């Protein structure tokens, strides 16, 4: 039985890349979720919805914001890998 090295090898966390992506995610997340909240409120008024309708619309837009943030983090991880070979 032979021992083969694992495909992951010796990997270390690239902290500068992780911190950069997390910092950008915080900044972009504040904008995305702020826009979801304000957009839901504005659309609810425009459509003549009551408070419950406004909260539902805000929750839907918040969910879209979560999907946007997931896509951003995945894309940023491709550009700034979180790990590197030691």
**From the helix content, strand content and strand pairing, which structural class follows?**
mainly alpha
| CA distance, first residue to last residue | 27 Å
The major beta sheet can be summarized as: 2 strands, antiparallel
- Integer average pLDDT: 90
Query: How many DSSP H or I helices?
Result: 2
Low-confidence stretches: none
Protein architecture, described:
- By secondary structure, this protein is mainly α.
- Helices cover 72% and strands 7% of the residues.
- The chain has two helices and two strands, in the order E-H-H-E.
- A two-stranded antiparallel sheet has the order 1-2.
- Helix 1 (15-47) packs antiparallel against helix 2 (51-79).
- The longest helix is centred in the middle third of the chain and has 33 residues, at 15-47.
- It is rod-shaped, with a radius of gyration of 20 Å.
- The two termini are 27 Å apart.
- The mean pLDDT is 90.
Mind sketching the topology for me?
Elements: E1 11-13, H1 15-47, H2 51-79, E2 83-85
Antiparallel strand pairs: 1-2
Helix pairs in contact: 1-2
Brief write-up:
With 86 residues, the chain is mainly α. The protein is 72% helix and 7% strand.
Main traits of this protein?
mainly alpha, two-stranded antiparallel sheet, 2 helices, 2 strands, 72% helix, rod-shaped
